[in-house]
Amino acid sequence: MTDKSKRNFFRRISSPKSFIYPPYYKKKEDFINCLECNDKACITACPEKIIQIIDNIPTLNFEISGCTFCDECAKVCDKVLKLENKKDKLNAEFLINYKKCLAWNNTICYSCQDICEENAVNFKGMFNPIIDLEKCTACGFCISVCPNDSIEIIIK
């Protein structure tokens, strides 16, 4: 690995604009070991097909599905993702953009609530959903089903 690729990696890891990672790592800095991985088995192991590689690092993309915390990516990774490091929440928080949300704009829509297995999306009456951040695992399923791209991601 070149010094330039290491510098770029650490610049990205320490920058405020980061990525959502599979929930099986100890420290973000450990992902530098992914640069040496040739097979990227975590991609094919993921049954939801949400792992994508950006700068040789596995990140999660919620456009088509969400993370089930199924352990499959950690089972095939021998460098960074480990079952003993499993987290209950991903490194993100989700918020609803009230200006874009159909329900906040008087259109009946329960897409985010219907898919949420943690019951983290609560409605005030038929409208005005909010995400309970204590219950939300940031699994991403609500993002993949939102018809108006109203869920915003805050990377932690």
TrEMBL record:
Molecular function via GO: 4 iron, 4 sulfur cluster binding; metal ion binding
Domain 4Fe-4S ferredoxin-type: 25-56, 127-156
Highest taxon, organism lineage: Bacteria
Pfam families reported in the protein's UniProt record: Fer4
Keyword Transferase carried by entry: no
SUPFAM superfamilies: 4Fe-4S ferredoxins
Keywords: 4Fe-4S, Electron transport, Iron, Iron-sulfur, Metal-binding, Repeat, Transport
Name the record gives this protein: Ferredoxin-type protein NapF
Organism: Lebetimonas natsushimae
